[in-house]
Amino acid sequence: MIATPLLALLLMQPVSVDQQIRTRYVAWDAAYREMNLDALDRLLDSEFTLVTERGTILSKSSYLARLAKADRPGVYETTVLRVKVTGSRATVHTSEKSGDKGKPPSTHFYIDTWILRDGHWRMLQSRTTGER
After folding, report:
1. Which are the contacts of 108, defined by CB distance < 8 A and separation ≥ 6?
2. What is the pLDDT of residues 20-39, one digit of tens each?
3. CB atoms < 10 A from the CB of 123, how many?
4. Is 12 exposed, middle or buried (0-12, 13-18, 19+ CB in 10 A)?
5. How far apart are CA 14 and CA 20, in angstroms?
6. Which residues touch 86 (CB under 8 Å, ≥6 apart)?
7. Is the pTM of this model over 0.90?
């Protein structure tokens, strides 16, 4: 049986960086919908910053403190538009649909920078680039 060894070989192939990053966004969305701050904390680098569209910069601790006061969103979903990997960094363009329960969702656009540290991809910066 050639199929069984071939299948085993395919299953052993390393997951691409693109797929690793996309998997992180799936985890991010699930944690954000539940406001699981511990899970979100693990996805963020210790030097994480959020840059708002107006240029305000929030540190990781400030960002998580704001989320601690927030209600769970009614809708929250990230779409990865493109991923560019350069060494141990990845630049990711995303759109995020979010909204409170009972209200129409809005869409935000981001450029996120991920960094590979200690074998794990963590978000280093999220920059808001637009909203509609």
Report:
1. 95, 96, 98, 128, 130, 131
2. 999 999 999 999 999 999 99
3. 24
4. exposed
5. 10
6. none
7. no
